[in-house]
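for the writeup, i need someone to sanity check this before i put it in the appendix. the sequnce is what the collaborator sent (i think, or maybe the updated version? ugh). structure was predicted straight from it, no edits. if anything looks off just tell me and ill rerun, i have time this weekend
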Amino acid sequence: MEVDAVIEMFQRSEALHGLKYANYIGDGDSKTFKGILDAKPYENFEVSKKECIDHVQKRMGTRLRNLRKKTKNLGGKGKLTMKLIDQLTIYYGLAIRRNSNSLENMRNEIWATLFHKMSTDENPQHEKCSESWCEWKKAQATGSLDSFHHKPALSNEVFEAIRPIYEDLSRDELLNRCLGGYTQNSNESFNSTVWHLAPKNYSSGKKILQIASDIAVCNFNDGLINVLRIMKVMVMNIGPQSYNFYLETDAARIQRADRSLTDAAKEARSSIKASRKENEEEFSNLEGQLYGAGIAD
């Protein structure tokens, strides 16, 4: 169903909008893109596939977590902790975003983030690091390396374990599809607005879904003012309370959006997430001690 819908969108783009879609931004599902290629919506023009860089970043986290589960003694203090996995995943995503116009720079920074975590005072490995984010590089630029000390480094055991994952997720074929820094954020934001009006856990017919989609478009583009316009078309009375509610709700939404984009808010979200991961790991370790095989022998 999703494949058919996307194919139809491509096939009608020239008739409706007078343009051709050059790229399909995917999330790892190859069926939809294959359907587009097979349908050949444009006679002499081939559609290219681009990756949603948010989904590519998630692959790193998923692969590292799966490796940690499958490999004995890889997790735990000083090894591949959940906090470290989150850090490596974020660094990987940032390397792609910061270098979305250069495949070579993208690949170099991906590896730079890994060697950055392996660095020690005796063996700093910051050759490919950028001064914009590397504290060692900043200290070197200001001549203060004598007072700089590295945090505990990634062990060689962990490095050798995760190296194949980095090799796979930094191959040219994948990174080439990340050029441009495309995401599906706009689509997902719109979809969440639709599902808020017509939740997935309730059965809704086609008409209800169409109405929810129309209202979502109105809210997404212009805010609740369009709801008042819909009420006016339906000959409904719009009192001062309705108007004030629209003003206050839209103002609050804009304020929340602005606040969520601040560096302080981003750092707070990262800190909360890291803290939660640490607690989960502590509970997991404790549970392992309490419920391990043969613990009562």
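Strands lie at 23-26, 48-51. The chain is about 65% helix and 5% strand.
thx in advance!!
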